[in-house]
Design brief:
Length: 234
């Protein structure tokens, strides 16, 4: 180690000792806090200005090496690459949305078909139940027939009740799927229209049978006023 280096180290140690004597622990803490805060602010400033500094450095480099035309060509290529990435990302998102919409439309169509089939099945069993009631009324009065009537009545009721329970669960699932689709998918119908449809689906099971009986009684009453054929009407 040379004499100059030794002298510099001694001077540095003396300077640090003098600074420690003149600036106590509180002073040192304040000074350290200020230094760290300044470093933090400088880092924030560098982070905010880094992109602009990079662009400026890039422009200066290409302009100096290839001229304005060369820099414009490089800049144009970068813009084209960025535009291509944006287009590809947008296209991928669009394709994904199209696939989701197609899947949702297929699901809705299947639900509609299932609902129509269940409605037909429900009407079929209503009609069968009505026929049972007519048969029961016709054969009333006979003891043996009454026993048989009770058996068929019980059997028909159990069958109808089982189908009614099955239909109710399937219909509930349909309504649940519709509610999920109402909030997760887009539609050409307004929100008010979809909510009205939802309300109708909810109250439909409670109003269809009374409406059916009212309409049936009206038609039956109107039919009773039609002229009767003496040869075919007993």
């Amino acid at each position: 180690m040379s004499t100059n280096e030794t002298t510099e180290q001694i001077n540095k140690l003396l300077s640090q000792s003098s600074d420690s004597l003149l600036c106590g622990p509180d002073c040192q803490k304040i000074r350290k806090t200020g230094l760290l805060r300044q470093n933090y602010l400088d880092a924030q400033a560098n982070m905010e200005t880094a992109p602009f500094q990079l662009q400026e450095a890039e422009k200066n480099y290409y302009t100096y090496e290839k001229g304005d035309a060369g820099y414009n060509a490089v800049h144009k290529k970068q813009l084209q690459e960025q535009a291509t990435k944006v287009i590809e990302k947008t296209a991928a998102t669009f394709d994904s949305e199209i696939d989701f919409a197609t899947e949702l439309a297929t699901t809705y169509e299947n639900i509609s078909i299932t609902y129509e089939n269940m409605q037909e099945l429900y009407e079929k069993y209503l009609e069968e139940n009505k026929q049972f009631q007519k048969q029961f009324t016709t054969i009333r009065g006979d003891t043996i027939t009454n026993d048989r009537k009770s058996f068929y009545e019980s059997q028909g009721y159990d069958t109808l009740n089982n189908w009614y329970i099955l239909w109710k669960w399937i219909y509930s699932c349909i309504v649940a799927v519709y509610i999920i689709g109402l909030f997760l998918s887009s539609s050409n119908y307004s929100l008010v229209s979809r909510i009205i449809i939802l309300i109708f689906l909810i109250i439909y099971p409670f109003i269809i049978q009374p409406i059916y009986h009212v309409l049936y009684n009206i038609v039956k009453t109107l039919y009773s006023y039609l002229p009767k054929n003496a040869y075919t009407t007993s």
